[in-house]
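Exercise 7 asks you to align residues with tokens for two separate proteins.
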Amino acid sequence: MSDHAFADQRRSAILALLDRDTSVRVADLARELDVSTVTIRSDLDVLERAGKLRRTHGGAVALGRSVTVSVQDRRVNVNAEAKRAIAREAASWVKDGQSILLDSGTTALEVARALVDREGITVVTADLTVADLIDKALPGVEAVLLGGVVRKGHRYVTGPVTLAALGMLHADWAFICPTAMVPGRGFMTNFAPMAEVKSAMLDSATRRAALADVTKVGASGLVRFAGAEDVDLLLCDADPGADLRGYLSEKNSELKVVAA
């Protein structure tokens, strides 16, 4: 068999492994396929140029693999590009080796994806989908999944066990995703037990960021979990408007607002 045919066979095997596992590492592939790590890196580079995978530090992840998201996020999963932009900005504030408390939802999931090339980061989350993505596709990131009661159909945990675990932690960052940002009121969500988790995450971090596209300004939200004084950074996809900016600056003059 020619060298070209061997290479095609190897690359097909790599794609098959990616289809099964979502992520692969160079050292594991070299051992599995009985070739050098140099050869594997070359194969991964060829497959990335062909649009078959995405290279990461030390390996590769599959493209186009969908991760099941929760009921509420399937219902309101709009402004996807805005959420990706916010997530990229959030990830840029995190240094390798730091720890993150990461909220539930689509924007949080995009934050996890934006950490794909990072090393030595620990992400603590109550969201099963976020933890699953990290486990399968982010070889340089460690996932810590909080315990608690799984809210049926929503793929996250809440309750006394969740709050007790958060009470033991102190992370470098908390990234929280409100359902609504209401001028004069603060950051809101619609499920009281999740409001408790969000608030506990903010209490358990050195730096605290709220992540929300501008459609959340003045949106419907039943339960307040934080005010402007409880966050250090607000990341949006555009200017959140004079009313919200006025409320934020009045309550917390040091709060930084960034349009991603």
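Second protein for Exercise 7:
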Amino acid sequence: MSIIDFFFRYKKGKVSSQPPCHLLQLPVDMLVEILAFLPPYTLLLVYQTCRPLRTIIHQFFLAGRGDILSNATPEDRLLYLTHSSRLQPDRWVCAKCCKLHRIHGEDTPYKSSPRHLSCVDGLDISERYGESKYFAYVPKHRHVQLTLKYTRLENKERVYNKYLLKLLEPYHHQLQEAYWTITRGVEVRFSAYPKVVNGRYLLLSIWTYLDYEIKVSRKSIRYLDICPHYSQREVRQNLHWGAIALAGIERALDTAFAIRGAPMRFSCGSCKTDFSIETSSGRVTICIWQDFGPEGTVFDKGWAAIARDTGALYHRRQSIRQLYGPHNHGGEMIE
């Protein structure tokens, strides 16, 4: 018995006006065997396609079992919601409560506030990543996903185009006061430039240390956080791999200060991060290129490695910098 025959028998002989579909010509038992290999979130997506498949899935997978996602993993739930929200520009997927929440036009990486949200992020990013930025620019998972969604969608309403511009807006901050991350008397400028390339969310962060009351020196940079794996902050916490992180970051700084006038380029071997350090008279410039990945969930390897530090992901050295492309910053061309 084909699926069409099964459906019309189930529907008591009602006649269909839909064009023929080759998939629906398969025997029911064969289709059930195929569907049994699919994860729960995919079954629910198939469930929403047409009445014959909805009937099959309800009859063989849902009847007597309640919610098909009741015993699913958090990853299955988030995958289902992520796929379901692809064409819903006014919703974002919350990793904490596994629900869709309404967007807020003032919720951006540089202006994020819990009062704008019905639920805070939870698994969206880790506490470590949220605190690793000196200034208030933290692209959380919802910001990344909404930016990618709006870039993909065509014929967006004006309100979503306006929100997309806010999500992609560069951020700048300047610091001259005494701060625990730098030596007193050194000026620090920070800029962030988000960008979407080939369906991937890329971020260029630029730190510029300048002579102010004193000259910039190797000792001026008391805290440097490139990524979870190149970070002096982790050494302060005495984590088990702190010595490795310290060696890597200190080596990079020593190399850059030893060879002045040219950018020294480095790459992280555990997440998709490239960076360069250039020292010159009165200035130290640190550029960080990061790839936060395509549309997906917080369980994706790219996001997990770069934001949650729950895995390692290799990439070709300097490939993120090359993918981002040249960028004009402060009168200097960065390539």
